[in-house]
Design brief:
The structure holds two protein chains of two kinds. Chain A is mainly beta. Chain A has one domain: Beta Barrel (Lipocalin), CATH 2.40.128. Helix content of chain A is about 15%, strand content about 55%. In chain A, strands 1, 2, 3, 4, 5, 6, 7, 8, 9, 10 and 11 form an eleven-stranded antiparallel β-sheet that branches. In chain A, a hairpin with a 2-residue loop joins strand 9 and strand 10. By secondary structure, chain B is mostly helical. Chain B has one domain: Fumarate Reductase Cytochrome B subunit, CATH 1.20.950. Chain B has a two-stranded antiparallel sheet with strand order 1-2. The N and C termini of chain B lie close together (about 10 Å). The chains are: A mainly beta, B mainly alpha. At the A-B interface, strand 3 and helix 2 of A face helix 2 of B.
């Protein structure tokens, strides 16, 4: 019993000194996506997003994060693609300029693996998502990486003539690499 | 000895004629379309047909290397014979260069070519917007040059048939048993 108490006390002291990663570095962070167009993988990215993050490796379950992605900053690789995707059938950025992710919980899966649950809101629709992520400390930087798949139809992304999945698949893989520093 | 091309050569010639006219028409039609699922579909078909055409050109070159084509009529002036050879060389060169430029353009624009949606053709170039736009201009220019060369090719074939009245056109046509 004594030993456990000691370990707890020690853990508390250690965590008090532990680093908490809070400052997201936009220039060292990226949100990309991959989708299939007639069975061919095509990738794109979002150029602008902001993020709040609090992550202490010693207290992962207390971690919190949120993202605001500026949907008009989409880069599909072609200007006509960017214009199309900003339009009404896709993101409808005039009415819904941002996609928002807010975490609701973090589970440590052992090693450097974590599972972040949260709510993703795009185009006025909210879905629960589970995001597997890894954390790597690099000096003062903490790097968070992961990917998860969303179904564009769940968010009405690609309506009308695009609603079928024969040309543009339903599944979209979202990949992220976020660099945050401790204060 | 017959002065006709072999059946293989004729089959390849006319198969490619149909395919290339289809590719040209599709290419000029699709690039101005507003973005739609149909446009993406047409682009994929164009790319699949382009890869097919490229492979057929390789088969034709294989035939051409292993066979001596029928000689040009002796009545043709030397300069004209030279022009004919130069014209054919240009056609072969363009038939190779055009699909290659299309493939490289697709890679640079970030849309990999996957033959019939099954066989991925490796990307030789990474995604690069400027390079993609440059290759688009090259692909377009080569095609305009190809159309001009085709006008010369078809014009020359018709001149041989109707004005010179030689066998240049007919020796590429399917043979009728009666003629031989």
């Amino acid at each position: 019993m004594k030993r456990i108490a000691l370990a707890l006390a020690l853990a508390t002291t250690l965590s008090a000194h532990a680093v908490e990663y809070t400052q997201v570095q936009p220039d060292k962070s990226a949100i990309n996506f991959v989708y299939k167009q007639m069975n061919v993988a095509v990738d794109g990215r979002f150029k602008r997003f902001s993020s709040q993050l609090n992550f202490d490796p010693a207290k992962p379950t207390a971690a919190k994060t949120s993202f605001d992605v500026e949907l008009a900053s989409v880069d599909t690789g072609a200007q006509e693609g960017d214009d199309e995707v900003a339009g009404k059938p896709w993101f409808n950025t005039k009415v819904f300029p941002t996609a928002k992710f807010v975490s609701t919980g973090v589970k440590a899966l052992g090693g450097n693996k974590y599972e972040v649950t949260g709510q993703l809101n795009i185009k006025g629709k909210t879905q629960d998502v589970v995001v597997p992520a890894t954390f790597t400390a690099q000096g003062k930087n903490g790097i968070f990486e992961g990917s998860f798949t969303i179904r564009r139809a769940d968010f009405s992304i690609g309506e009308g003539s695009w609603a079928k999945f024969d040309i543009v698949a339903n599944d979209v893989l979202v990949k992220f690499r976020i660099t945050a520093t401790s204060k | 000895m017959t002065n006709h091309y072999t059946s293989t050569a004729k089959a390849l010639h006319w198969l490619m004629a149909i395919l290339l006219f289809g590719l040209l028409a599709l290419g000029f039609y699709m690039h101005d379309l507003p973005l739609s699922p149909e446009k993406l579909q047409l682009y994929s078909w164009h790319k699949w047909a382009g890869v097919t055409a490229f492979l057929l050109v390789l088969v034709r070159l294989g035939w051409r290397i292993t066979h001596i084509p029928p000689a040009l009529p002796a009545s043709m002036p030397k300069l004209m014979q030279l022009a004919a050879h130069a014209g054919h060389l240009a056609l072969y060169g363009l038939m190779l260069a055009i699909p290659l430029s299309g493939w490289l353009m697709s890679s640079a624009k970030g849309f990999q070519t996957v033959w019939f949606g099954i066989l991925p053709i490796p990307d030789l170039l990474g995604k690069n917007k400027e390079l993609g736009d440059l290759l688009q201009t090259i692909h377009m220019s080569l095609n305009l040059l190809f159309v001009a060369t085709l006008v010369g090719h078809i014009g020359a074939a018709l001149k041989h048939h109707f004005i010179d009245k030689d066998d240049i056109l007919t020796r590429m046509l399917p043979q009728h048993s009666k003629e031989n």
